[in-house]
Structure formats: structure tokens, C-alpha cells
Amino acid sequence: MRYGNGGVGRRGLVAAAAGLVASLLVSGDATGLAGPEPGERDDGDGKHRRGGAGAEEFRGMWVATVTNRDWPSRAGLPAADQRAELIALLDQAVKRRLNVVILQVRPTADALWPSPYEPWAQCLTGVQGKDPGWDPLGTAVAEAHRRGLHLHAWFNPYRVATHADPSRLAADHPARRNPDWVVPYGGKLYYNPGLPQVRRFVQDAMLDAVRRYDLDAVHFDDYFYPYPVAGQVFDDDAAYEAHGGGFPDRAAWRRDNVDRLVAEMSARIKAVKPDVGFGISPFGIWRNATTDPRGSDTRGLQAYDDLYADTRGWVKEGWVDYIAPQLYWHIGFGTADYATLVPWWDDVVRGTGVHLYVGEGLYRAGDPAAPAPWQDPAELSRHLTLARGHDHVLGHAFFGARDVVADRIGAMARVVADHYPTPVRPPGW
Fold first, then answer.
1. Given this structure, which CATH class describes domain 16-157+194-419?
2. Domain limits of the chain?
3. Residue 282 and residue 291: Cα distance in Å, rounded?
4. Secondary structure E strands in 72-115
5. Where's the Glycosyl hydrolase-like domain (predicted)?
6. Has this prediction a pTM greater than 0.85?
7. Integer Cα distance of 16 and 3 in angstroms
């Protein structure tokens, strides 16, 4: 997600609505024993799904920790205060009749649990590598489950820092021990996805949490190769020279690097804990139809071409249990119309067994910088009404937690009143 202090969607910094539009212009299984129950359908793969409202529906809330976007409210709070804030967010999720919390536990190649691979996260104490005196991820899992919530651990695979100064990282940070793994780009630091040793390391670091905790799912966001920055080049020449042989061009090699991360992580999660899900919330546009006839009738940035993320391909290959595209645009938006993208994604998942949950830009509701439709408290509710007409949409996720709490113009309250009359279970896979 491009987001930040009001930002463009879980993953950028303030440029908010205007920033997202600018970037654009350049992203249930209810298993039966006999047959589908009333109101369900069988797509021919033996799995029975219930579209729209039903006994199972994904109702998620993202909790971003990078730059203290959603939680903790600031770095350096006492452990007891951090815990109390986290509990309050879980209680808010219950109050809003949500059932899944997607907690960012590896925001900048650091960890919200005692990891043997990476330092403690800076967002906790203000000092990367400093022990916060408690186990945030362990507490989050236990307290979420106590409230009947699922906990999805959200990892960012390749972002190392939201600045470009390696000396500001913890002294024992893997990026400092292995400077050849790191690429500065756009004022930030990234691990190089083209290095096999990097791919293995980030998987090992994330799988440590899978082994230690009773997670319901592993969650990736939209950051693989970074979003394009005008006038700058992501310098992976050496990696391409070493590992790019046999590919028609660098773009194909980069896509293969990301594909390998997704496919390998999927297989390794299932090998460690088969019941742990794996989901990704990519940028909402795979490709535009003007580029590829299989693409959507949109005119924005393309995940396949600009981020080297073949999001449609991951679904078709069955490498993910769910896909939650970030459709952070209003109904009728000419560049990327919500009403165009929902049916496009609905068709992509058809027959695959992959769940479709729609990522919703709650943070835009009431944002003075957002277009006029987002000033209407009913816009978000209309999204859910529209999505209910598509059988493969099994729920929604809302970005982000602070916006669920603040609910500037009552858009979230309207969603709850119109669509969430009672608590329900999230879908299983």
C-alpha cells in the first residue's frame, strides 16, 4: 500500500490522494461434505463459495506500523501503553464487526517479535534494535484470538529503510553486514530482489514468525520492486549480469525474481504450517487493456510492467490463498474506476479457488485532498453494495486502523450500518 501520514495508500508518504493519482498516471471457502449449500456455488474445483453476504465474509483492518502510521501512536511509549493502544485497536475491530486484523510486523527489515534474523523494529522504541520489553506479535495473536479475530501477519519483503543512510540502521542490521544486498533508490533503501541469497534470507526471516506463532495468515503488500521514481534508475546491473542470463530482457528477469519469492514463500509456509494462509494485497491494476487485451479498462500504472509483479499470474498459478487488490479509487474515476476493477478481479479469480477480498481506501473518506465522491459518507458503502453483485468477492479490507477509529465523516459507520448487521466468521481456505 502506498500510504503514509495521510498518504496515498498504505505505502508512501503524505502525497495522499494527489500522490496516488499522480502515480496512477505514469496498480469463503465454505467447504461442504456433500455439495453446495443453499446460496453457495461450486466452481468445479470441489470448493464451495458463498459470494456477497453470507455466513462467512472477510472484514479486515490493516494496522500499519511503519513510521508509526497506525500503531504505536509514537515511538518510545512505555510497553504498557503500547499494549493498551494495541488492545484498543482490537476492540475497535470488534466494535465495527470486523473479523481480521492485518498487523504490519516487519515494516523496514526489522521485527515486532524477538527475531534471530533482524533487529527489533524502530517504531516501538525509536531505536532500531532496542528491546521494547514485551512481545508485540505474540500479544497481538493471543489477544486477537481471545476476541474471535483472525491475525494476519503483514510483512514487507524488500524495504530496508524509509531513508537512504545505512549508518542509521542498527549496527548489526543484516543490511549493514551485507551492503552488497542493498540498493538505494528514491531516497530509500531496498534489498535487491535479484539476488538469490536475499530472497532466501527474507523468506527465512519471515518464516521465523510463522514457526513461532499461531498466525492465521501471512500477508504481503504491494511493494516488490519499488514504485518508479522519475529520473532515477534502480541499480541492479551487477545482479542482472550475474543472474539474468536466459531472459529476453531485464523486465522479464525482474518479474521472475518476484515470482520466485511468491512461489517459494507459498510452498515454504505450507511446509511449515499447512493451515496458515498466504495473501497479497497488490496495486489494483495488473495491466491496462491498451497494453494487454487481458487487462482492465484502465489507464494507470501497471503492476506487471512498473513493479514487475504479475499479480494475475499468481492467482492463476494458485500461489496465494487470497488476493486483496488495493482498489482505492471511487466509483466513476476515469483512470481506474472501482466499478470496472471489481468485475475484472472477480473474473480473474473465477475457477482458481483463490479468494478475492477488495482493499478499500477508507483513509480517503473525508480527506480534503481527495476528489468530491470521497466527501460523501455513502461512497464506501456503495462500494460494498456494488461488490455484492459479484459472486467471487468474499469480503473487504479497510485501510487503515487509525481511519477506522477516527472515521472522519462517518463512512465506516455507514458501512457497518448498511452491511455488517451481525458478526460473522472470516472465510477459511
1. alpha beta
2. 16-157+194-419
3. 19
4. 100-106
5. 57-368
6. yes
7. 7
